[in-house]
Amino acid sequence: MSWDVVIAGGGFGGLYAARRLERALPRQSARVQLLTAENFLLYTPLLPGAAAGTLEPRHVVVPLREELDRTEIRLASVTGADPGRSELRVTTLEGRDQTIRYDQLIVALGSVSRVLPVPGLAEHGVGFKTISEAIALRNRALLNLEIAESLEHRDQRREYLTFVFVGAGYAGLEGIAELQDFVADVIDRYPRCRLDGTRWVLVEALDRVMPEIAPTLAAFATREMRARGIEVLTATRLDSLDGSTATLSTGERIATRTLCWTAGVKPPRVIEELGLPLDGNRRIEVDETLRVTGHENVWAVGDAAAVPDPAKRGATPCPPTAQHALRQGRLVADNVAATLGHGKVRPFRYKTLGVFVDMGRHKAVATMMGIKLRGFPAWFAARSYHLAMMPGTGRKLRLMVDWTVGLCFGRASSELGQLGNPPSLGGFVDPAERRTGHESIDSPRA
Question: Could you give the 3-state DSSP secondary structure of residue 104?
Fold first, then answer.
């Protein structure tokens, strides 16, 4: 008999579940399908490096077909489910609605940015959750430098040279540090901008940055940020945003053309359409074996699942981190295989081994198995950890080359906002015609 095992989601939980199932289940005993909207895994801890030009964007993604041999990969978006009938509803790339039956279902749909109803945020803010958002942020920083360099008055240049990040978790702290490093690398090529200087503001609603790490390390990170000229505003919220001004809860109005929103994540909305029990934070309720409450053949892992955290004796869910998701993926594969007669169902017992926060300029803060590190040792440990965890020998070598080149040469300052948005042939305008005043059609910038 051949079983149908369906994995919804191709992130850390989904990929590592599929890899383990290929080894845990005998050939011909099961058909494993991986449903994902994209054909790659984004290695999110390295996203700030891609945004800052330290890493080639293609080197922070893992093509799923290179990592999986027997798994059937189907590009589709999950739209709903009927657990009572063991059916999953999806929409394919061509826009066709399909229903997929399963014997065992693993839900690993990850998370999306948690956007609050701040006036103007959706229209004028930039996210920092996907590779496209990271590259768009880099392009905007360069475009701002180009515009500021073309303006005559300093007051006009100021809003283009001010960068605001909201949310001082992993993404916010690493993102603002890496982007500041990048701008500092290229600003010498912009004489007016260099004279004016840039302003960097990190806004956090809590009373300190990085609640995930020890207070002493968070204090060190705050001091390091401020020593580099980054304003760290804690116990402060974003009240509103328009095209040129960010208004804070303190009443301060900051003239800026770039605000990056990194204030947490939440499960995608489709989670509510699966017919599965949810907790107060809209995460799927699971037991310690990762099985969904009340459903014998449905499992959930990663950011969308409320997996009891062994480090807190199950009192709270595991944090939404890559290191938890990939280990949950491996365990859920073993437990699915055990349910099908190959092994024994086991509980999730992983506890966080370490926390790394890369702040650029060869500095970081880290906690490893109870040992606190900061400065260069923490930075070296963070790089070593990510290098070890990146799937594939070829990708490890690419990361090493990128980091080595970055130590020896500066970063490129090409604004590539037209990537992915090529102009149509009908919209092509000869440069000579532009000079004569004919109307032109430009492709949108990322």
Answer: strand
Extents of the domains making up the chain: 3-111+267-339, 113-265, 353-411
Contact 292, 325 (CB under 8 A): no
172's CB contacts (< 8 A; 6+ apart) are: 128, 165, 166, 202, 204, 260, 262, 263
How far is it, in rounded angstroms, from Cα 364 to Cα 356? 7
- For 113-265, CATH number out of 3.20.20.450, 2.30.30.50, 3.10.290.10, 3.50.50.100 equals 3.50.50.100
Query: Residues 309-349: pLDDT tens digits?
Result: 998 888 899 988 899 999 999 999 999 999 999 989 999 99
Tokens of 225: 């940020």
DSSP state, 156?
A: H
Give the pLDDT of residue 221.
86
Contact (Cβ atoms closer than 8 angstroms) between residue 238 and residue 115: no
% of the chain with per-residue pLDDT over 70? 94
Secondary structure class of 359 (helix, strand, coil): coil
The pLDDT assigned to 443 comes to 37
CATH numeric code, 3-111+267-339: 3.50.50.60
Residues 6 or more apart whose Cβ sits within 8 Å of residue 81? 87, 88, 89, 105, 273, 274, 275, 276
